[in-house]
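seq:
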Amino acid sequence: MRISLRPLGDVPGDVLEDLVEDLKDLGTATILEPLPLGAESLDAERGQHRAESLLDALAAGPGDRVLGVTAADLYTGSYKFIFGLARIQWTPAVISLARVATPDPARFRERVAKEAIHEIGHTLGADNCPNRGCVMSFSDSAEAVDRKTRSFCGRCRPTIDFTLKRLRT
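struct:
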């Protein structure tokens, strides 16, 4: 599978380079030119960007999947914030670095990787999983991200493998 990483706004290059490495189990990732964060996605009152608007901007990207990466804080619907968003079996996904920040560089990288894998998992057909250790477990805090692994559990793995096999044929 080909994964295109699309920076949205100013994103540190080392974060993107780490993601290229961290997503190797899912496919080959390449870094695209950044897109500016559009004013149409910004809710000035909240100081956050609406994630759906960013997904719409990513819909026409190259590759089998497009992962938008932004430092901006994101929200959707009634959620105060989200780490990322994707639609089941759609091409684009987006993650935010805003709420996974920590002074520990290794923990930050791990959190970013887990959320990237989680959102790409949605694009491959997996839904949120009740298994707290599964990468597809819903996270409502940085601590919840820390608790889960980078791996798909036995319930989610067949869905991922099925979709990856379809993409290869």
